[in-house]
């Protein structure tokens, strides 16, 4: 199987068709579940627009329940009235409302404007060098820190928005999520190279438009999102504060065959080779019962990491659902909060943290890969 799959990739690459093969086989964009609409001025707004509150359906975090089983949630209203982050060039990046559109699969019969009492929800279209735009959403709780979130494969920002709002609520941290080319409301065609360029555009937007410092950015990659997250974090041009990998993989072809030892030149997202260059703290989590990507991938990544914060493999959790599992969801949010607090502590106590966290140069290795000729 290994030689068959790698042979196909090599053959297509020699014919200049690698990206087309990746586009057809590796990615599954769903039907869009949301829209972005240019935000009206306050005086133009009408009351008929509905509000969408992100809440905990099970009541597990309900403050009226046993306090020993809950996270401490404070009143977030005070944070919403502070000065929030706005883009430096609003004429280039106007604000959009995030609209959940009717979807029979989730029994949503009418449009809903996504808002939250926890954070300000603002969307943007980010401009790429190819004149195509990708969609994004900024959940601003007025924190100094932000999670740069890369979503999974068969989903878009609309299906992830509830999780993103909960991340803000329980970690007290801002969240910025971007969408891959060809997904949801983002323009362009999807392949691994385009995703890597997408996250670079998102990172630069956080720095140059929203004013975050590099070490205030915590990169979070879920599933296939681990690919662009590791690639960005291992690039010396994009220093960050920390990296979170949830249900990630060691490389694309290793998901198909676990017998691959040396990464093929044309592999997709060779995380196992690139993670060794990352110098910021790395938090890896992976369900022990993951049937899509084995937890062996997490163990391999942890073994290769030079600055591993923690490897957490909860039992009886699959490819997704750590944040909703009744047994582990409390630990999930607590561990994330502790990791973010650790990053904040480093920012407070290490004067030259940006240099300390800057990824190692790839010139120290003999490892060669397709990306080195196409991206770097």
UniProtKB/TrEMBL annotation:
Please give the start and end residues of each transmembrane region: none
Among InterPro entries, the record links this protein to: AB_hydrolase_fold (IPR029058), DUF818 (IPR008536)
Entries under Pfam families matching the protein = DUF818 (PF05677)
Q: Which residues form a coiled coil?
A: none
PANTHER family membership: ALPHA/BETA HYDROLASE DOMAIN-CONTAINING PROTEIN, PROTEIN ABHD13
Name of the protein described by the UniProt record: Serine aminopeptidase S33 domain-containing protein
- Organism of origin is Paramecium tetraurelia
Upper taxonomic classification of the species? Answer: Eukaryota, Sar, Alveolata, Ciliophora, Intramacronucleata
């Amino acid at each position: 199987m290994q030689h068959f799959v790698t042979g196909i990739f090599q053959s297509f690459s020699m014919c200049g068709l690698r990206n087309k093969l990746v586009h057809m086989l590796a990615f599954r964009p769903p039907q869009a579940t949301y829209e972005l609409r240019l935000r009206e001025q306050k005086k133009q707004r009408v009351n008929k627009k509905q509000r969408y509150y992100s809440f905990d359906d099970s009541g597990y975090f309900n403050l009226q329940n046993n306090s020993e089983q809950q996270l401490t949630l404070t009143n977030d209203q005070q944070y919403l009235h502070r000065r929030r982050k706005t883009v430096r060039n609003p004429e280039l990046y106007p604000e959009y409302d995030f609209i959940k559109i009717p979807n029979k699969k989730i029994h949503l019969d009418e449009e809903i404007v996504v808002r939250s009492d926890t954070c300000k929800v603002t969307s943007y279209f980010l401009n790429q060098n190819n004149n195509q735009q990708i969609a994004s959403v900024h959940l601003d709780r007025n924190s100094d820190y932000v999670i740069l979130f890369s979503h999974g494969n068969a989903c878009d920002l609309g299906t992830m928005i509830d999780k993103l709002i909960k991340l803000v609520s329980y970690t007290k941290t801002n969240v910025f999520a971007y969408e891959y080319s060809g997904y949801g409301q983002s323009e362009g065609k999807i392949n691994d190279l385009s995703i890597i360029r997408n996250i670079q555009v998102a990172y630069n937007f956080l720095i140059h438009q929203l004013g975050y410092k590099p070490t205030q950015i915590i990169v979070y990659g879920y599933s296939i999102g681990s690919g662009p997250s590791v690639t960005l974090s291992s690039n010396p041009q994009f220093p960050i504060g920390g990296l979170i990998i949830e249900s990630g993989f060691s490389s694309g072809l290793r998901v198909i065959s676990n017998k691959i030892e040396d990464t093929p030149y044309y592999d997709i997202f060779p995380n196992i080779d690139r993670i060794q260059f990352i110098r910021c703290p790395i938090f890896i989590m992976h369900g022990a019962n993951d049937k899509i990507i084995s937890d062996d991938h997490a163990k391999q990544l942890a073994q290769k990491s030079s600055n591993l914060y923690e490897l957490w493999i909860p039992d009886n959790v699959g490819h997704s659902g750590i944040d909703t599992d009744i047994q582990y969801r409390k630990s999930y949010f607590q561990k994330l909060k502790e990791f973010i607090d650790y990053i904040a502590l480093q920012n407070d106590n290490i004067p030259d943290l940006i240099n300390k966290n800057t990824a190692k140069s790839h010139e120290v290795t003999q490892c060669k890969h397709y990306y080195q000729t196409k991206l770097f």
